[in-house]
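FW: tagging you since you asked about this chain on Friday. Here's the raw sequence from the shared folder, copied in full. Didn't touch anything.
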Amino acid sequence: MYGVVYCDEVAYYRWGATNRQMSPKQIDVLANERLKIDSKQVKSVLALQESIRSKHQVILHGYSSSNSNSTRDRYVEAFAMTQNKQHVFCYEIDPEEGDGRVKTFSVARINYVEITNKVWQHERKHIKPMIDIFNMTGTTPIHIVLELDLMAYNLISEEYPLSVKDLTKNEKTGTWTLDTKIYNPLGAGRFCLGLWEHITIHEGDVLKTYIADKLKKIVL
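HL: got it, structure written out here
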């Protein structure tokens, strides 16, 4: 959907049975066509990709964070993106302290990306975290096994397509087993709470504890 495909920083296009290098004009034309699909988000993706190639710091202007319930500018070194270009891995820099940590940002929540003239200063700390099927990141895997009925199966396969590889149908019961690893109980927890009548948690003590704590707060 983003049009231009790069290999070793060179853009190519398919012509019959051959791969040909794209000219700067061809790149601009194709990029502009794709910008019509979702102008703001695609512009952000293109800017982030350019900053990664050139190793320059960027400002994520007007980033809307669900965790902090705030909208503000974020100063980061973007160093990798997920395959679907929906999330970007960054080393966030504290403007006052000059230090920070690796975080994952949703591209859709960025107002616009500004590439600065400052080059990366923290490349050695660019450690890419793992990402699970619920788009949660972390470094410590948590094994979970869920049993889903048809409704839960349909929703998880539609909303979280990466889950398909970890789903197995149980022919005798007509249910599906999700056997996977998560890196944060938040994503799986939200999914289970929203479909509590349609899901059974067979394994995953961390996930069970997370849901139990949330239920206590709901009742109170």
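FW: Helices lie at 24-35, 39-54, 150-159, 185-194, 205-219.
HL: agreed, and Residues 56 and 68 are 26 Å apart (CA to CA).
FW: great, closing this out.
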